[in-house]
Write a structure and sequence with these properties.
By secondary structure, the protein is mainly alpha-helical. It has 14 helices and four strands. Helices cover 65% and strands 6% of the residues. It starts with a helix and ends with a helix. About 7% of the residues have low confidence. Its EC number is 3.4.24.84.
Length: 343
């Protein structure tokens, strides 16, 4: 954990120096006004400072908790308090830091009816999370999102005609086209699509419409999102996340009965929820590596295809942290593509 923090702190420092550069990068000269560049630079520097402070505090807290064995102390302390009030301290549900879903697993296992999933625990856990993901993908845009934002059909006009024409040219089964009042919470602009099979819908943020100077700019944003659909990027990403989740649950099932692992963190017994916490700590370096690999894939997807994001970016920091390449890299990629065509 400390080595990962030092490495990422080094990247943060490189990025902070890049953000302090007072001039626009060459690809953005004449494209971005100096006023907007200064706003972006101030915004990015503030975020960078806050991030550095947050990460420093986090690593100190995490290291202290692990090194001084705060978790096992808390676990034993809670067991003592539970015993004093006359409850069964062996029941993990009584401990304050045990999640509610452990109740059925622990109780059933004590009476021999449940072996805590046995060899198929990883499959059960993954199946539950997979079903939950599909459920949320289905009900969030239709039921939950409208509780917080207002969705109105895009009025008839030139913009609607161009978007429908674009969707038809790609054989995108567009059923509904909405505008959401994203400006009530943020000035960031965006557009997204959702829906399964032949029931696709596109949502435009009102900020996107306000910030673009003409319909063609908005259509180009939609074209980018439809490009992800046409090239199956969304499906690939979903499958990759599900595979990683299954491997993560599978990894936990391999170590959940490891007495040595629990003892190395100061635990004499092997509580289920503590096993999950310990496992999450032990795979932190692997998670960072996988996150970096997924960012590389995501950036590759983006290159196959008006916010205050950073304009001067350090290449190492960008490659490690950004799933979406910044504006400068996108413009450079376009220039490189034009150069190849001319050659």
């Amino acid at each position: 954990m400390i080595l990962m923090y030092l490495f990422e702190a080094y990247l943060d420092n490189r990025q902070h120096r890049a953000l302090k550069l007072p001039t626009l990068p060459k690809p953005l000269i004449g494209v971005i006004s100096n006023e907007k560049f200064e706003r972006s630079r101030a915004y990015s520097l503030d975020k960078s400072c806050f991030h550095c402070i947050h990460e420093a505090i986090t690593i100190v807290m995490d290291t202290t908790i692990l090194y001084y064995r705060v978790l096992p102390w808390f676990w034993k302390k809670s067991a003592t308090l539970v015993t004093e009030v006359g409850l069964n301290a062996e029941n993990e549900m009584i401990h304050p830091c045990v999640l509610s879903w452990c109740h059925g697993l622990v109780t059933e296992a004590r009476h021999g009816f449940n072996k805590i999933g046995g060899p198929y625990l990883a499959l059960y856990l993954w199946g539950f999370m997979f079903a939950l993901a599909l459920l949320m993908m289905t009900i969030y845009p239709v039921v939950i999102a409208p509780l917080f934002n207002k969705f109105t059909p895009l009025p008839e006009g030139v913009l609607r005609e161009k978007i429908e024409k674009l969707a038809a040219s790609l054989k995108f089964p567009l059923k509904k086209l909405f505008v959401v009042d994203g400006s009530t919470r943020s000035s960031h602009s965006n557009a997204y699509m959702y829906g399964f099979f032949k029931n696709k819908r596109i949502v435009l943020y009102d900020t996107l419409i306000q910030q673009c100077s003409n319909e063609d700019e908005i259509v180009s944003v939609i074209a980018h999102e439809l490009g992800h659909w046409k090239l199956n990027h969304t499906v690939y990403s979903f499958v990759a996340v599900q595979l990683l989740m299954f491997l993560q649950f599978g990894g936990y099932t391999l170590v959940r009965n490891s007495k040595d692992l629990f003892e190395s963190f100061g635990f004499e017994d092997q509580p289920i929820i503590i096993g999950l916490i310990i496992f999450q700590h032990t795979i932190i370096p692997l998670q960072h590596l996988l996150s970096f690999c997924l960012n590389l894939v995501s950036r590759a997807f983006e290159f196959q295809e008006e916010n205050l994001s950073a304009m001067n970016t350090d290449p190492w920091y960008s490659a490690y942290h950004y799933s979406h390449p910044p504006l400068v890299e996108r413009l450079q990629a376009l220039d490189d593509s034009d150069s190849k065509k001319e050659d």
